[in-house]
Amino acid sequence: MERKKVLIIGGVACGAKTAARLARLAPEFDITVLERGEHLSFAGCGFPYFVGDVVKEYKDLVCTPLGIIRDANFFRTVKNVTVHTGCLATRIDRENRCVTASDASTGEEKNFPYDNLVLATGASPIRPPIPGSDLNRVFTLWTMPDALAMKSALSSGNIKTAVIIGAGLIGMEVVEALAERGVKVSVVDALSTPLPALVGEDFGLRIARAVKAKGVDFFGGEKVTEITGEGGVVTGVRTDRRSLPADMVLLAVGIRPNTSLARDAGLELAPNGTIVVDELMRTSDPSIYAGGDCVQTRHLVTKKPVWQPMGSTANRQGRVIADNIAGLATPFSGVLGTGILKLFNLTIGKTGLDEKQAKEAGFEPVSIVVEEPDRPHFMPGMGAMTIRLVADRLSRRILGAQIMGTGVVDKRLDAMVAAVSSGMTVDLLADGDFAYAPPFSTALDPNTHAANALKNKMDGLVKTYQAKELRERMEGPNPPLLLDVRTPGELDLQGRIPYEFVNIPLGKLRERAGELPRDREIVAFCKISVRGWDALATLKGAGFDDVALLEGGIMAWPYELK
Amino acid sequence: MERKKVLIIGGVACGAKTAARLARLAPEFDITVLERGEHLSFAGCGFPYFVGDVVKEYKDLVCTPLGIIRDANFFRTVKNVTVHTGCLATRIDRENRCVTASDASTGEEKNFPYDNLVLATGASPIRPPIPGSDLNRVFTLWTMPDALAMKSALSSGNIKTAVIIGAGLIGMEVVEALAERGVKVSVVDALSTPLPALVGEDFGLRIARAVKAKGVDFFGGEKVTEITGEGGVVTGVRTDRRSLPADMVLLAVGIRPNTSLARDAGLELAPNGTIVVDELMRTSDPSIYAGGDCVQTRHLVTKKPVWQPMGSTANRQGRVIADNIAGLATPFSGVLGTGILKLFNLTIGKTGLDEKQAKEAGFEPVSIVVEEPDRPHFMPGMGAMTIRLVADRLSRRILGAQIMGTGVVDKRLDAMVAAVSSGMTVDLLADGDFAYAPPFSTALDPNTHAANALKNKMDGLVKTYQAKELRERMEGPNPPLLLDVRTPGELDLQGRIPYEFVNIPLGKLRERAGELPRDREIVAFCKISVRGWDALATLKGAGFDDVALLEGGIMAWPYELK
C-alpha cells in the first residue's frame, strides 16, 4: 500500500507541531514540511528575551532542552519527518493535489504531491507606509533574522535611544528588553493607553505610569508621521505632536495573515484575510487543513469567529490537525483571547471577555474591580494585584478577567482560564477550594475574593462605583460626599483623591459618624476598599442609607492623585 | 425591635470570619464572640513560618496589614462586634437559647442568650499516650502559646536535634523551619512515606529522598514507643527500630474536633466526632450553625461526607454561615481535599480524588504521571514538576491531581482546582487556552500536557506503565525489554534503572532498531519520556508491535536507581 502523503507548508509553531504529533500517531505516513525560512520550530515568543539578552544565544531558541538543534536532520532522524528549508510554496494545484515550491537559493521549482495538505503559513508583521520606514535600524521582530539583526544593533553599543511604534504585546515586551539594556525608550501608539487589546483604559493608565517610573515615555493617541534618518540610518521619529530621537525603531503595529497561497487556490477566506476552517481545522477543501496565525478560529464563550494569532493557539491547533489527519476526529475547543506579559515588575493578563465584548456577544455583563495581596502580609515577597472580573447577570457565568500587578498574577489568570472555559458560575468560584498555605496565597485566594465581591454587587448587597463611574459622578451634578477612611499618614504616602473629601480613619468612624451629612450620598474608600467595606457597615449601622464603595480603593484609582 | 442576637463560640478562623462578614451584611445585629484563648483571628497557618523565623514577630500573625492588632477593641470599634477572650463556653441550653461561659482568670460564670448560635470551636492536637509525652520541650503546634513556646526554645540556642512525630502537613512544614535554623531533624511516621494524605507512595519516596538531601532523616513505618528525658526535659525518642537524640520533639500526629459542647447539647455528631451540618451549615438544631475544624463537610466531587480541617475551609464556611444567618440562603459548595505545602525547594500539592478515592466513590479512574518543565528551557529559573492526573474513564471528567516539583506547582494546582470543581473534561483541559509567555509557561502548559497524555492513554493511542506497574512487570514472569533512549552522559548524570536494559540514544534508534528483538514487549523511556514517545513511534514505524512507555521517565522513577 502507498503511504499516505501529508504535506505541511510552514515549519515553525503549528506546522512543526502537526508534523511531530502526526509522526507519533501515524509513523506509517509520509510527512513532509516545506519551510521558506532557514529555521524550524523556533521559539518566536522568546525573541524579546533574546533581544534583551535574558536569552544569550539564538541557538537556545531553536534547540531541544538537551541542546540538539531542531534542524532538518533532527526531524529526519528523530521524528521521521522530511523537511525542506529555504523552500517557498508558490502554488497549490487542488485538482491534482500537488504543491509547487521553489528553492530560495537556486530558484529551482519542484512539485510535492499530497493526500492531505496543511497550511501553517503564519503571519507577517505590518510595515506601515510611513516615510522612512525602510531606513536602517528600523526593525520588525518576527523572524529569526529580525531578532539577530536587532540584537546585533544593540550589541554594537550605538543604540542610546529607541522608539517603539505600537504598544501591543510585542512592543511592550521589547520596551522592557531595551530599557533593561540601558536604552532610553519611547513608545508611540495611536490609541490612548498601552495594551488596548488586553486591558481597559484604567489598567492602561496605570501601566503608562509604571513604565514612566522606569524611565520609559508613553505617548498615546499620537500618529507617527515620519521616520527621519541620516545617511540611510534612522535618527528619529516624528509624530503629529512631537519629535523623538531614535537610534533604532521597532515597528510593532500588528501582523497580517499569510494567505495569498490559500486565496490563489480558491480557499474560503474571512473578510480579514484569514483562512476559514471548521471545528476540525479543515478549510473549504476537506483535504486541506490550516492552523496557526493564518486561520480564523472560534471563541469558546461567544462561539463567534475570532482571530487569535498566538504561539499557544498555533501549537494547540497543530495537535488538532494531526489528530484529524490520523482519523481521531478531535474538535478544536476554541480560544478565550488569553494573553499575558511581563513588564518590569508587573504581570498583566487577560482571559475571556471584557464588558464591551460581553455586551456585543449578547450577555448582560457585571464587573467588579478588586485590589488584593497575593499572600499574607507577614510573608516575605508579598505582591499585589488588581482583578477585574466579569460575569453574566442572568446565568452568573464567569465571562472573563483582566488581572494586573506585582504579585503572582499568572496563577490567578490560569485559574480563571479554567473557570471561563468550563462555564463556572461566580458562586462556585467564590467558594472555590483553592490551595492555601502562607507561601502561596491568602486563606481565601484573590480570585475568590473577586468573585465574592462580584456576588455582593450582583446580589445588591453593596452599591459600588468603579473609578471612571465615580469620576463622572464627581464631575456631574450633585456629586456624592467622598469619605476616605485611611490614616493621615497613608494619605501622604499613597496620595489623595483629586476631589473634595472628608478623612475619618476607620477606627474613629463610629464615634465621628455624626459629623457626616445624612441627606447626601456617601462614597467610602481606603487603600484597597476593605476598610471601606467596614465603613459602609458602620455607616449603615448608624442609620445612613445612601452609602457606596469605590471599587479597589486608592490603589485601583487610575487617574492622577494629588 | 430587639436586635437579633448572634453568639459565636470561637474567634479564630471560622468564628472571626462569620463575625466580620455578618457585621457587614447586618450591622443591626448584636454579634458576640466568645474565645477561650487570648488571641483572636490569628494566622495559625503561619506558625511554621514564625517558628522558622521567616515571620519575626508574633504580632505579625495577629494584626491587620496596617499593623493594627485584631483584639477585642479592634473588633468593637471597627467591626461593631463584642468579643470576650479568655472566656470558655461550658454549656448550651438549647431550650432557652442560652450559653453559659466561664471567665478563664476569675472563674466567674455568665450567661449569653442567643437567637442564632455559631459553633466554631475548632480542633485540638492529639497527644498520643506515649510515655514521656509530657516532658518539657515536647511540643504541639496549634495555638499561639504553642508557637511562642517552640520559638522561645529554638531561640535559646540549646536545640541541636529535633524529632518530629508525624509526617503530615504541619510536621513537614516544621521540618523545613527547623532545618533552615540549623537543627538536625528526624521525622518518624507510622506510615511508610511522608504526606500520605496528600500524595501516594511514589511521590512520598521522592519526598523522603529530597529531605534526606537537606540532611533530614525520614523513618517511615516506625512506631514511637517512648519519649525519653532527663530532669524533666526531653533527650530522645525511641521507636520500635531505633533511638534518636532529641533536644525537642514535635507531636504532629493529627487533631481531633472540639465537640464536647455540641455533644453535651445533644447535637448530631458524625462517627468521627465532628458536628453534622447541612448544606447551609446548620446543625441538627436549625438555630445553631457550625463551621471550621469541628464540622463534617461534603466532598464536592463525591458528594459524600468528609472532614477537611483547614484554615481556608474554615474561612469559606464562616462566610456561608454569616450569609445564612443574614437570610441569604447560601449553600456551601463542598471541599476538594485541596492541600499544598512548601518543603525546601519543592512544592507539593493535591486537589480532588486520587485513584483509590475515586474507585471508592464509584468512578472508573484512569491516571497518568507526567514530568514537565514549568517554562521554556531557555528562560532563567526553569523548574520541573511531576503531575499525576486522574480522570473518570466514562464521563472523561477530571477527578483530581497531585503535583510536586521545583517549578511553579501552585499555579497548576489552582487551575486543577477550578477544573475539578466545574467538572471539566480531560478533553477541554487538554485544549485549554492557558496564558503563555516565556516567563510564565511553556507554549502548552504542563496541565494541558498532562491532559493530552491522559487522553492518549484513555484513547488507547499508547500503552504505558507507571513506575510501580513496571517494577511489578520486571519482577514477575516474562519481563519486557527496557529501552533507555537517553545519551550515555545522561545515564551517568541521572542514574540507571535497576534492571537490565538496552541503551540506544533516540537519534540512533532508527538505524539500530534491528538490534532489538521482535518477539518481546519493549518499554521505552528517557529522562521525562518525551523522547520515549518518539522512540515508540520509531519502533512502530519499524514494525514493532508490542511497545510501551514508562510514564514520566527516569525523573518520575521513585525507587532507587543504580
> What do the pLDDT scores of chain A average to?
97
- Under the CATH scheme, which architecture of the largest domain in chain A would be assigned? 3-Layer(bba) Sandwich
Helical amount among residues of chain A, as a percent range?
A: 25-40%
Dominant shape of chain A: globular
Structural class computed from helices and strand pairing of chain A: alpha/beta
Cofactor (chains A, B): FAD
Protein name (chains A, B): NADPH-dependent 2,4-dienoyl-CoA reductase/sulfur reductase-like enzyme
Pfam families (chains A, B): Pyr_redox_2, Pyr_redox_dim, Rhodanese
Keywords (chains A, B): FAD, Flavoprotein, Oxidoreductase, Redox-active center
What would you note in describing this structure?
The structure is a homodimer of 562-residue chains. Chain A has 562 residues and is of the alpha/beta class. Chain A has four domains: 5-122 and 256-325, FAD/NAD(P)-binding domain (3-Layer(bba) Sandwich); 138-253, FAD/NAD(P)-binding domain; 345-458, FAD/NAD-linked reductase, C-terminal dimerisation domain (Enolase-like, domain 1, 2-Layer Sandwich); 464-556, Oxidized Rhodanese, domain 1 (3-Layer(aba) Sandwich). In chain A, 27% of the residues lie in helices and 26% in strands. Chain A has 16 helices and 31 strands. Chain A has a five-stranded parallel sheet with strand order 3-2-1-7-19. Chain A has a five-stranded parallel sheet with strand order 9-16-10-11-12, covered by helices on one side. A five-stranded antiparallel sheet of chain A has the order 22-23-26-25-24, sandwiched between helices. In chain A, helix 1 (14-25) packs parallel to helix 8. The radius of gyration of chain A is 27 Å and the shape is globular. The termini of chain A are far apart. Chains A, B: InterPro entries: FAD-bd_OxRdtase (IPR050260), FAD/NAD-bd_sf (IPR036188), FAD/NAD-binding_dom (IPR023753), FAD/NAD-linked_Rdtase_dimer_sf (IPR016156), Pyr_nucl-diS_OxRdtase_dimer (IPR004099), Rhodanese-like_dom (IPR001763), Rhodanese-like_dom_sf (IPR036873).
